[in-house]
Design a protein that fits this description.
By secondary structure, the chain is an alpha+beta fold. Helix content is 23%, strand content 18%. It has one domain: GAF domain (Beta-Lactamase, 2-Layer Sandwich). It contains three helices and five strands, in the order E-E-H-E-H-E-E-H.
Length: 141
């Protein structure tokens, strides 16, 4: 995949608290940290940027309310992502998939694109598969 992709995961007590874009989990954990960021060559990583209150972002609030993937081929419609995502990281499209555990949104997976784009059925299937793999991994803990 040529598109920059960013994912994250939490591990019980292994990292200091931070807020970063990506998959988050608070089932059995209190720490939010990004452990993995996959990006295309030359693309700036969001991994170390702790400046955003992730759970207060419009897009994350939307995920919390709707509990289904958010697909944004552009940012001309609500919910709007944070300005830093657009201005600092040059993200122009994204799709987010919620991680629902025990009836709560425990986290999410974020996939970002540096250009506006339609998210194809294979793209959305990959997001669904990644979300399922997170659930399977958490079930195995």
């Amino acid at each position: 995949m040529a598109e920059p992709t960013q994912t994250a995961t939490d591990r019980a007590g292994e990292s200091p608290p931070t807020t970063e874009t990506g998959r988050r989990s608070r089932v059995r954990w209190k720490i939010f940290t990004m452990l993995l960021a996959l990006v295309a060559p030359g693309v700036r990583s969001i991994r170390r940027d702790g400046s955003l209150d992730q759970r207060a972002l419009n897009t994350v609030v939307w995920l919390q309310q709707h509990r289904k993937p958010l697909v944004q081929p552009h940012f001309r419609e609500a919910p709007q992502p944070p300005e830093a995502l657009k201005d600092v990281y040059n993200v122009r499209a994204q799709t987010l998939g919620p991680i629902i555990r025990a009836g709560e949104m425990a986290g999410w997976i974020s996939i970002h694109s540096l250009r506006e784009r339609e998210w194809s059925p294979p793209d959305l299937a990959a997001l669904a598969q990644a979300t399922q793999r997170v659930h399977d991994a958490l079930d195995g803990m």
